[in-house]
């Protein structure tokens, strides 16, 4: 069935959802779709429906709700019910929810859980939000190396209900160090009596729990992995990141970079559900910063008042020239920020790329100078045209150099290269452009030195 | 082993790669890493090494090379060898390479292939580049519905070598319509004698081969799928998209959107390997377009020459005011473009979001107006400050409204909403800002109507 048809029939069944119908709806539809509709209900009604399905299904639906909705619903039920829900959530979802609960919610919850659950939550919840440890799950499958392929499949069948995936299993030694990995495909294809130790893959790609979560997503994408093992500082296996979590991480990292390049902070909620207050907070900081950044351009213009007064035709070309430098610079910065984020370039490539950018920018500047020269002659005569052409060539080259360097510099000093790159570069390029334009004009058109 | 250590030892082994060492290097390292090093060699040397490994390994390494390198190497070998390589590539990689070959390369290749291969290539290569059909593979696994779970596993084991994945298998009827799906996990966990038809999942999410490839990536991410079945216009199964291909699609779509928002065309090569010419072509169009967009701002300024001459202090605030409208608008556009790309918002949400944006922009504008008011009093006195404050409030609200609407309008008329959104909005907001600023100044400061 086509997804649209599925959604239409699901929505129809949900028009007046009853406790009687809900279990069959939940059984035949994907939890992501059912959860999307639960997201729109009042908390009380959502709980009434969730109460009608088995605990496992309830936990699966709950895990598919939006983060804000999860916290809202958690505040609405008894401690004992919440503890029961917790037990059925997978360890990574559990740790995420725990981290999102308010302080008092956490404290009332802990005593209701068993010792082992408490420790698991504490361990997973201890990693900072952007770390691999915060997206990994501890529900991974291991196989002993001495098992035969047939017995290993039997073993995975037995543990399957508690594991996030059984398609990749890990072989660990007595100190929980990963010594090999086998896929379920390998196990099925291998001769039934072959021993795991004899055909497991010994070169295992791992990631550290303290690494940035984006690194896990990049490794999974590059090596087409189903699950990436996560190790602690003693190289012991502590969890896995699965491909589906990696997709979510990659999407949310790309969204964050997107927003940062556009001079905004991180937005926790989805744009559709974001509140006026959260959008305001996300956007105001850089807007105000950039206001003050633009003061330099204004000061530059004020400084050259005499030149402007003598050649008012110059003003016509002002926005066009200063924006061109900013636009060319934003392009370089955008290319660079994305290439740094996907791991396509690394800092050591910088010098080579800067040289190439010089070539590209020279060509871009020349083309733009030619296109603007006719306009220059028409609006201001040949002398003004010369000023405009020279300025265009210079601001495009300088803007591009800044645009190519700033993300590298930020990332060199461990700042996020995406942060406000494009607008910041526009502000810098604007101020530089003003000074270049009027300096060239003052020099070429022979106006007495300006006074402040 | 840590990935860095792996790469270091691989690079050491590659320092002077010999035909004798290469097979063992290729066996113990991931094809993505080995291919990255092959990418740096001369074509002749790369072929010499590739010639030393079995055809299957050769094809796997080849498929991991960059697109440009694949075409370059393909031009460097005999037709018969190329045909042999083709046979060992997976159908999707084969179709990709075929599409990238020059016309004459394709024509000499076709006769060297068997009838069935030719048809498969023609079919897969027929889909346009952005379609699901162009990223799908025809190497999917099917299981007959009457098999028992045990027999189905046995069946998948037998077909495994030729299939992209056996973790998800599809049940099709006589007309190749998908009637159900089972995962290998389901098959392993099910009682050995249970029939596939009795426990397969009947609600199968599918995608059309003509849909945009991003849609396949979104479905795979939303429903945590390993493989998504692709159907033709008659609802017949024609291929699958696997999760790893979906990750690549999602990454390249995010990169393209990133670049488009920054006013650039698509870049086929990676940024590191891009040539000066390709970067120039990618960037020049929008730079020149935006030059002409800025003419309106220039014309606006020229039109208000008299006002400017009477109150030169106004010029100080010009860059700051017009950029603020553009910055606020770019923020809205960036949020919206990304939300449209991830499917987070749809066109019907527009009216509601525009209303919310009005609230957000009013608050943003008010905050920015307050921050700039002190500067206004200091540089220009209370009257100029009033003009600046009013203009700030207005340009931020108008810029935000434009920023929120333009991506929606573009996507409504089936243009790509990402295309040049931020710089285009900056240009529009700049021109609007100039007119608003000097109109308010002229009205409040009581200067006679300007003449052109």
Please write out the topology.
Two copies of one chain form a homodimer.
Chain A: H1 3-13, H2 22-28, H3 31-38, H4 43-50, H5 55-64, H6 67-74, H7 79-88, H8 91-100, H9 103-109, H10 115-125, H11 149-159, E1 168-172, E2 178-183, H12 184-189, H13 196-199, E3 207-208, H14 213-222, E4 227-231, E5 237-242, H15 243-261, H16 276-303, H17 305-310, H18 313-341, H19 350-412, H20 421-445
Parallel strand pairs in A: 3-4
Antiparallel strand pairs in A: 1-2, 4-5
SS content category of chain A: mainly alpha
Strand content of chain A: 5-15%
Number of E-state strands of chain A = 5
Tell me the overall shape of chain A: elongated
Task: For the structure shown, list the relevant keywords.
homodimer, 5 strands, two-stranded antiparallel sheet
Describe this structure in words.
Two copies of one chain form a homodimer. Chain A is mostly helical and 452 residues long. Chain A is built from 20 helices and five strands. Chain A has helices at residues 3-13, 22-28, 31-38, 43-50, 55-64, 67-74, 79-88, 91-100, 103-109, 115-125, 149-159, 184-189, 196-199, 213-222, 243-261, 276-303, 305-310, 313-341, 350-412, 421-445, and strands spanning 168-172, 178-183, 207-208, 227-231, 237-242. Chain A is elongated, with a radius of gyration of 30 Å. The model of chain A has no long low-confidence stretch (mean pLDDT 86). At the A-B interface, helix 11, helix 12, helix 14, helix 15 and helix 16 of A face helix 11, helix 12, strand 4, helix 14 and helix 15 of B.
């Amino acid at each position: 069935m086509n997804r649209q048809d599925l959604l239409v029939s699901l929505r129809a069944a949900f028009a007046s959802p009853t406790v009687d119908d809900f279990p069959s709806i939940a059984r035949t539809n994907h939890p992501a779709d059912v959860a999307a509709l639960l997201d729109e209900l009042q908390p009380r009604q959502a709980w009434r429906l969730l109460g009608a399905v088995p605990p496992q299904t309830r936990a699966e639906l709950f895990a598919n709700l939006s983060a804000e909705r999860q916290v809202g619903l958690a505040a609405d039920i008894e401690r004992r019910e919440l503890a029961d829900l917790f037990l059925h959530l997978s360890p990574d979802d559990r740790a995420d929810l725990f981290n999102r609960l308010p302080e008092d919610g956490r404290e009332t919850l802990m005593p209701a859980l068993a010792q082992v659950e408490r420790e698991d939550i504490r361990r997973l919840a201890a990693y900072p939000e952007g770390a691999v440890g915060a997206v990994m799950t501890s529900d991974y499958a291991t196989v002993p190396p001495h098992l035969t392929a047939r017995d290993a499949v039997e073993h995975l069948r037995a543990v399957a209900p508690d594991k996030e995936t059984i398609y990749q299993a890990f072989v660990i030694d007595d100190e929980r160090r990963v010594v090999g990995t086998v896929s379920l495909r390998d196990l099925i294809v291998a001769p039934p009596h072959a021993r795991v130790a004899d055909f497991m893959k010994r070169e295992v790609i791992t990631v550290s729990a303290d690494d940035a979560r984006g690194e896990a997503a990049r490794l999974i994408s590059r090596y087409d992995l189903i699950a990436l093992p996560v190790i602690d500082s003693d190289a012991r296996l502590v969890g896995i990141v699965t491909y589906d979590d990696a997709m979510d991480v990659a999407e949310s990292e790309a969204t964050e970079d997107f927003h940062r390049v556009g001079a905004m902070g991180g937005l926790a909620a989805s744009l559709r559900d974001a509140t006026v207050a959260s959008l305001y907070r996300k956007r105001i900081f850089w807007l105000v910063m950039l206001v003050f950044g633009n003061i330099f351009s204004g000061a530059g213009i004020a400084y050259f008042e005499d030149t402007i007064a003598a050649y008012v035709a110059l003003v016509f070309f002002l926005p066009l020239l200063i924006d061109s430098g900013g636009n060319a610079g934003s392009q370089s910065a955008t290319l660079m920020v994305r290439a740094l984020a996907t791991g396509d370039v690394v800092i050591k490539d910088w010098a080579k790329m800067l040289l190439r950018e010089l070539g590209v920018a020279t060509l871009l500047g020349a083309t733009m100078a030619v296109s603007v020269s006719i306009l220059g002659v028409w609006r201001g005569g040949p002398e003004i045209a010369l000023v405009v052409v020279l300025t265009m060539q210079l601001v495009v080259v300088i803007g591009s150099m800044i645009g190519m360097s700033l993300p590298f510099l930020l990332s060199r000093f461990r700042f996020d290269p995406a942060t406000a790159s494009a607008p910041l570069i526009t502000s810098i390029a604007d101020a530089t452009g003003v000074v270049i334009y009027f300096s060239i004009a003052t020099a070429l058109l022979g106006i007495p030195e300006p006074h402040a």
